[in-house]
Amino acid sequence: AMNPASTMKLVTTYAALDLLGPAYVWKTEAFAGGTLSEGVLTGDLHLRGGGDPKLTYDQFGRLLRQIRARGIREIRGDLVLDRGAFLTANGDPARFDAQPMRPYNVAPDALLVNFKAVTLQLVPDPQQKTLLVSAEPAPANLDLINKTTLGTGNGCGDWKERLRADVFAHGPTTRLVLTGVFPPGCSEQRWNIAVMDHPQFVLGVFQQLWAELGGSMSGGVRDGPVPADARPLAVLPSPTLAEVVRDINKFSNNVMARQLFLTLGMEAGRRPAGTEDADAAIRAWLDARGLALPELVLENGSGLSRRERISAEGLGRVLQAAWKSAVMPELVASLPVTATDGTMRKRLKQNGVAGQAHIKTGSLEGVRSIAGWVLDRSGRRWIVVFFVNHAHAGGAQAAQDALLEWVYAGRGT
User: Fold this and answer.
1) Cβ(12)–Cβ(279) under 8 Å?
2) 3-state secondary structure of 207
3) Measured distance CA(140)–CA(125) in Å, rounded
4) How far apart are the first and last CA of the chain?
5) What is the CA 150 to chain-centroid distance, rounded?
6) Judging by DSSP bridges, how do beta strands 189-194 and 216-217 pair with one another?
7) Between helices 254-267 and 241-251, what is the axis angle to 10°?
8) Are 42 and 75 in contact (CB under 8 A)?
9) Pairwise CA distance, residues 315 & 10, whole Å
C-alpha cells in the first residue's frame, strides 16, 4: 500500500459513475419565507445546498436571476443557508501544507459557491508605474486593498513569490491586503485566492449579484433548515456527473472530488453526510463489485492526503473492472490525454505515445504517480499504474514517461 496522491480520484469517480449514473445532477434550491407583496419579501430568503461541486459564480447568478424573475426586488429579512446535506467541516485549512488561502485547501460544503475563491486579475501599467488589481467575484463584504508596487527590469520569473496576501476581519467586512513588488516584465496574471468562511462568502457574492440585478436586502446571513411552510422559488441543476467527473480528472480538482466523495455518503442515505459515510459507501460498492482492497485507506477521496493508501495492484484491478463496466466510456474520457490536455498537456510532446494514452496524474511532496490506459501501436490497450513514494519523487517523471513510451511501443509483450 502506498500514497497514490491524485490517482485516488479514479476510485472516487468510478464509484460515483457506477453508483449514481453519468446523468446524475445536484440541485440548489431557493425558498421564500414570510409574505411577498409588490416585489417585497417580508421575511427570509432560504437557499438549500445539495452539494453541487460546480456552483460557479456564473451558475449562482443564474439562480439569482430566477429569483428576481419571480418578482422579488427587496428582501426584508436574512439570507438563510441550509447546508445540512454535508457535515460542516471546521478543520484548519492550513493543516495540510500551511497554505490556507490556496483554493485546493477549501473544505467541502453543501452550499459551495465558486469554490469559495476569488480570482484576482493583475494588470501592470508601466506608464503609471502601478499594478491594477480587480476581483471576480467581488463580494460586497470583501474590502480589497492594493498596496503593491511595480518593480524594475524586464524579467517575470515566479511573480507570485514576490507578492503577499493577508486577510483580516474588520467588523462585518473581510479585508484582503496585497503587498509586495510585481515584475513589470510580466503580462497580465490571474491569482486564485480562497477568502472568508463559507456563509460570509455566500452572503458577499449574493449581495454583489443581487445589487447588480437591481435588488436590495436589509438582513445578514445565518444557517438554518428550510421551514416546511416556505414557498419554492427556484431550482438550479448542476452540470451532469459525467461533466463534473471530467473536470475532476482532467484538471485534478481536489475540491470537486471531495464534494463528490461526500455525495456518495449522502446518496447512501446519510444526512448530513461525513467522511465516514462516504468511506462506507465506497467500501460497500467495492464489496458488491467483488473488489477486495484490504489495504485501502480513504480520507477525503481526492488524494490530497497524507493518509490515503492503495496498492498499485489494487488500483490496477479497479481500472480492469472499470474497463468492463457500462460507465467505461465516461471514465476513460475524463482522463488527461498525453500531450493533449489536462495535467498531461505538456508531457510526451513529439512522441509516439502522444495522444495515445489516457493517464491520471498525482503529485504531492514525496509522491509522484500515474495510472490509466495506454493504446499501443498494435491497437491493444494496457493498464498502467506507477507509484513513487520517496523524498526525491519529484525526479520520477522521466521514468514514468519512459514506461508509457515502452508500453506504447509494445516492448513488454
Assistant:
1) no
2) helix
3) 26
4) 27
5) 32
6) unpaired
7) 140
8) no
9) 8
**Residue 273 has what pLDDT?**
98
Q: Which of 236, 259, 235 is nearest to 247 (CA)?
A: 259
Lowest mean pLDDT among 94-108, 197-211, 266-280: 94-108
Residues recorded for the chain: 413
| Segment 193-204 mean pLDDT | 95
- Is-contact 176 242, C-beta < 8 A? no
Please say whether the beta carbons of 46 and 61 come within 8 A.
Answer: no
Decide: helix, strand or coil at residue 375. Answer: strand
Task: Please identify which residue in the block is written with the cell numbers 486593498.
Answer: 145
Give the residue-averaged pLDDT of 272-298. Answer: 98
**How much helix, strand and coil, in percent to the nearest 5, is found in the chain?**
30, 30, 40
Kind of pairing between the strands at 117-125 and 45-48: unpaired
pLDDT at residue 90 tops 80: no
Q: Count how many Cα atoms sit within 13 Å of the Cα of residue 152 in the half-sphere of its side chain.
A: 0
**170 pairs with which residues across the strands?**
173
pLDDT of residue 153: 75
| Helices 275-288/9-20 angle, 10° precision | 70
Under 8 Å between Cβ of 320 and 14: no
Q: At 316, is the secondary structure helix, strand, or coil?
A: helix
Residue 91 CB partners (closer than 8 Å, separation 6+):
107
Q: How far apart are CA 106 and CA 93, in angstroms?
A: 7
- 399: amino acid identity, one letter: A
